[in-house]
Please model this.
Amino acid sequence: MAIRAKKVQPAKVEAIAAAKAVLETGSDYIFADYRGLTVEQISELRKQLRAKNCTFKVIKNNFARIAFEEMKVEGVAEYLSGPTAVALSTEDTNEVAKILYDFAKETPVLSIKGGLIDNEIYDAEKLEAFSKLPGKKQLIAMIMSTINAPVQKVAATLQAYVDKMSEGGEAAAE
Model:
């Protein structure tokens, strides 16, 4: 549970509202410890994530806890300790996770804590396995090629038969 002050401070209420507004822009969240990253490294990571329509935000933990409580999202409080950045994604979350894990391999100071994807809590190991899955667009392409393959074979067989008949048909007519 988030720590709440006895006296309401307008500046903090505004900060919580701002944090909530930022967190509501994403549907899936991946939490990472960014301690030790340089400005250039964070900028490069943000650039890579922006290509996948993802944002990488640093939000004060207590504000994030309260914002998640107000959004009725449970189970993320354990990831909000220490310096935490949140990757906010709306689609292709496994590709976002892949970018984060690839970046963490290059820059070991970045560590992935866990995430909330489709209202399910993922720990770091489960999130790493999730990052290795193909993306939604890749899965659709695989399914479509599987569906299309038999039709292509039938069409190729029929075309071969037509070609054979046209070659053999002239010889048979003579």
User: Anything to note?
Assistant: The mean pLDDT is 87. Residues 59 and 155 are 57 Å apart (CA to CA). DSSP finds six helices and five strands in the chain.
